[in-house]
């Protein structure tokens, strides 16, 4: 089979790999949709000579990209029960594998495993940008018949990440939430927060992304490139500031502004990967009784809950996608995605 790889420095190479065969406890999925996520860009842009600083052990061999896989089971290995998977099942993939036996792994948080180096599909283990993907049966999450394969791909990382963060923040209809960054994850956050009943202030420096946020239900739009975002949020909340703020951008200024625009006793959540900030703890955190949390993706349980939420609340996850590609178009797809000025893309396989 052919698979998309990232040799580094914004290059894409489509390579040939053997079709996978499932071993004990494993299944093979035929991919139907494999989403493009902002985290892909770390591997896509990486230097060929400088080691990665992600903390995830690198593979010594070329790895198929794509960590938002969704497809149909086509082969089942020894020891996999019918309750876990059978041929023809529609499945999403939770794209991590740890030791499978520690408390984190057994509760569905395999990415938090402290016992073995964690495999991350599409990063240091083969991912979904190919015809087939072999995974342990315990990494799969059933895809409801009411959801498309493309929706399942989004829930498998980008949309699921937004949902997981909002869930940790206990968003409700009483809250005003300011979401910094309206790329695919931030836009999914806007979409879910509205479905949860919150008032949403959407922030981005791209006028195009702000207009998309309006389409997804944002109540107020703020462009930090032409407005002081902290002052704007203060005015929109009658001096109280936002109950909750969420940063999906990884931008230093956005993160600082998110903290500064959170109310007394409020909660601010980091989602965007990488980077750092420096802030005076006393006035901005300690003397405002602020809660700072970090949310890294989600568990298998929350992934399934996100899918159920989308079905029950009729959340149109497919609306996130602005581009649909074939694997042969991978170079063009990632060149466009690298600009981070448009919406979300997906490979249909």
TrEMBL record:
Keywords: Metal-binding, Oxidoreductase, Zinc. One of its GO terms (molecular function) is zinc ion binding. Gene3D superfamilies: Medium-chain alcohol dehydrogenases, catalytic domain, NAD(P)-binding Rossmann-like Domain. InterPro entries: ADH-like_C (IPR013149), ADH-like_N (IPR013154), ADH_Zn_CS (IPR002328), ER (IPR020843), GroES-like_sf (IPR011032), NAD(P)-bd_dom_sf (IPR036291), Zn_alcohol_dh (IPR050129). The keyword Zinc applies. It comes from the Bacteria. It holds the Pfam family ADH_N. Residues 8-347 form the Enoyl reductase (ER) domain. Its cofactor is Zn(2+). Belongs to the zinc-containing alcohol dehydrogenase family. This is Alcohol dehydrogenase.
């Amino acid at each position: 089979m052919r698979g998309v790889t990232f040799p580094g420095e914004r290059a894409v190479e489509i390579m040939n790999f053997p079709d996978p065969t499932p071993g004990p406890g494993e299944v093979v999925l035929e991919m139907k949709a494999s989403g493009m996520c902002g985290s892909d860009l770390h591997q896509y842009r990486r230097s060929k000579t400088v080691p990665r600083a992600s903390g995830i052990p690198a593979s010594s061999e070329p790895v198929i990209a794509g960590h938002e896989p969704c497809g149909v089971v086509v082969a089942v290995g020894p020891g996999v029960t019918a309750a876990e998977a059978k041929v023809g099942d529609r499945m999403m993939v939770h794209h991590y594998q740890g030791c499978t036996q520690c408390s984190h792994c057994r509760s569905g948080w395999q990415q938090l495993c402290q016992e073995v180096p964690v495999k991350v599909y599409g990063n240091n283990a083969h991912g979904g940008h190919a015809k087939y993907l072999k995974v342990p049966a315990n990494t799969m999450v059933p895809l409801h018949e009411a959801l498309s394969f493309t929706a399942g791909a989004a829930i498998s990382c980008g949309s699921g990440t937004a949902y997981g963060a909002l869930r940790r923040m206990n968003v409700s209809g009483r809250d005003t939430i300011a979401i910094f960054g309206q790329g695919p994850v931030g836009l999914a956050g806007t979409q879910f927060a509205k479905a949860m009943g919150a008032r949403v202030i959407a922030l981005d420096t791209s006028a195009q992304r702000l207009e998309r946020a309006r389409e997804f239900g944002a109540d107020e739009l703020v462009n930090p490139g032409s407005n002081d975002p902290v002052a704007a949020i203060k005015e929109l909340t009658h001096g109280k500031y936002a109950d909750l703020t969420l940063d999906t951008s990884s931008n230093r200024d956005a993160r600082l502004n998110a903290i500064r625009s959170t109310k007394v006793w409020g909660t601010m959540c980091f989602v965007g990967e990488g980077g750092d900030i420096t802030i005076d703890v006393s006035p901005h955190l300690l003397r405002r009784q602020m809660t700072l949390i970090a949310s890294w993706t989600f568990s298998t349980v929350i992934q399934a809950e996100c899918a159920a939420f989308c079905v029950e609340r009729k959340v149109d996850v497919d609306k996130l996608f602005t581009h649909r590609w074939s694997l042969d178009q991978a170079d063009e797809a990632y060149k466009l995605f690298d600009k981070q000025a448009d919406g979300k893309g997906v490979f249909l396989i």
